[in-house]
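User: Can you fold this complex?
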Amino acid sequence: MDQDTLGHHISQRYDAELSDIRNKVLEMGGLVEQQLVNAVRALADRDRDLAETVVRSDYKVNAMEVAIDEECTHILARRQPAASDLRLLIAVIKTITDLERIGDEAERIGKMAVFQLKQESRWTPQVDLRPFGDRVASMLHGALDTFARLDVEQAIAVAREDINVDREYEGIVRQLITYMMEDPRSIPASLHLLWSARSMERIGDRSRNICEYVIYLVKGRDVRHTSLEKLEDQAREPR
Amino acid sequence: MDQDTLGHHISQRYDAELSDIRNKVLEMGGLVEQQLVNAVRALADRDRDLAETVVRSDYKVNAMEVAIDEECTHILARRQPAASDLRLLIAVIKTITDLERIGDEAERIGKMAVFQLKQESRWTPQVDLRPFGDRVASMLHGALDTFARLDVEQAIAVAREDINVDREYEGIVRQLITYMMEDPRSIPASLHLLWSARSMERIGDRSRNICEYVIYLVKGRDVRHTSLEKLEDQAREPR
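Assistant: Here's the predicted assembly.
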């Protein structure tokens, strides 16, 4: 095998490794999304089996994070990537941290669904968290899609959705406070719903983080702590 | 200059870069710790000026995170580090993410302190969060000290403290629920205290994360998602 062919083979293998990492992140993202959807459904439908499945499955998310993290470290050590490959690996390391924490929040919602079943349902406020949970799940889906396509415009649109998520969350908190003030017997159940809504709101924040890593990856610029307006301007500038 | 002297110079400069990164992480840690201590004090003493200072200063934490992150990326690209240097950089990238989020939680506590001042103080539960805040601040201090000394035994001891933090947090939640149930007028103020306590509890989790990165850095093994007992066994094994 001459030098050129060898070089070609190595670079093919390297490309395959990078594309394998990206696929694994998307696989992990799919699992986390499923955990969230199940947790929201378990809470809304008072479905104990489904809630327990969510809590029991979190270890899978954790295992995937550790595995991808190790793969990134190995590639960093062996291939010594530069420029956009290096940014890809750093973006992956950060993205899987957020995905793992989204998994933790889904697990928390699952636990809340189990606690909720122990409360008498007549003291449980009639606040349906499903629409809010669905909105957050679709934001996470959008963030993962953005990562799959490396689409900066979409990343900005999805990050922007976080404003609506925050607004809806504030409304839910206000609503739950009125229930608690009207009848103190609703307080324990209201707090479980409040923690669940809080977890969903945090998932919105983390989905926004993932969008910011995609912008960093494509544009080579760190856009965290940047306002959405500036972010739009910057993302539209050519590199 | 002969090859050897040149190599020596480069490696000296490289060592200086790595040690500079470590110092910057500790500097960032010191700032975050100060933010937390001030936020806890502002909440306990109903000190509006101090609370506003905390909220206004969060941008400094964010700026440091971005700067250190960039420095890590540059070193990764230029020096192509292997083995323990690579682990150091990865541990730094993860540590500053947690530090930045601890800064966010301190900012949240500062905001809660401001909201709290708008509540009539007679409906504010007599729950002093200062001892809990101090415990969490000392856990964070311990985690940073662990990072400075790269001391695995200490990392385990500090990580273990998270169990006590979680227990104390549960007690505070229970206490606040009784206030809310006794007098619904205390609900808004109780919720502010509840969110603040929650932020403190999260800071305990993130301090534990930092300890785990130190173990990873020293031992070369990813110990996240490992129980504390296993972690102690593993950390004591020679590499």
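Chain B has a mean pLDDT of 91. The two ends of chain B are 39 Å apart (CA to CA).
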